[in-house]
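Consider this pair:
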Amino acid sequence: MDRRSEKAVSVRVLRPFVIDVTFDDGYRREVDIEPLLWGEVFAPLHDVALFRQAAVDREGRSVFWPTAADLAPEFLYFGQDTPYGRIEFERPEELAVGHLTLGRRLIEAALDILREKILHARRRSITAACS
């Protein structure tokens, strides 16, 4: 029987941006969260004094900070590749680039449709004029 549990019972700050989490099944894992320190909630954790205030929430499932930043227990236990699927993190600038690329593709597709409609209308016009 698989007895793993994703319920955090304690957290210790090992060094800036690295925590050691212990789970109720005895499993321990070191988690480096520096790549996540961006955005309104996580960026303030660059302040080491604030980062050191990591705690386990009342329900004992995740780790949180006074900034309202918290980490999902399945991420803490398994990392990015959980049994529930891969957890992906994208910085806003990466999202913006993705949206710009998507926006450009949509505009190009719309222009292609317009060109086709114009060509079709011209062909109809020429055919009608020749008749």
